[in-house]
Amino acid sequence: MAYGRVYIDNLRNKVTSIFKALTSENLLNEDNFIKEFKRIYPKDYNLLQYEWEFKIHEFKKNRKGNPKPHPIRPEKILSNIYRNYYFKLIKNPAIQTRKEKSVNAIRRIVGMHGYRIKKNPLGKYDVIKKSTKEVIYPNITYGKLKELFSQKAFKN
Q1: Tens-digit pLDDT profile for residues 88-129
Q2: Which domain does 36 fall in, by range?
């Protein structure tokens, strides 16, 4: 342990295993995550608790009036871990799949009008005219693509 910072070995693997276990039982929420982390990895939780106590001691010992941030409680650290990993493991993949479904719907609409949408290596989209195979709109983002080729735009 370094002073002022605890390193939990294989944190990503531990958190993903807890997430998988809780999602399979449909019990995934912040409180259950914290309880499971405390139950499955008591040594890591004790390290967080030890670090917090050490920082509280240093915080109280600061008599010179130098500004220091108040230490974060271990439960709040676990809460932050839950929120970050919830976005990475649950929410972000769902956003990506919805985005791909939307792009595929736009591809179908655009295909009927003689255009083709191709994803380029930069992660953006190129709109190609099928007849001449020239790129009409290079490097457009998802939002711009949605704005340009919405169903309303083609109806007008």
Answers
A1: 888 888 888 888 898 998 888 888 888 899 988 888 899 999
A2: 1-98
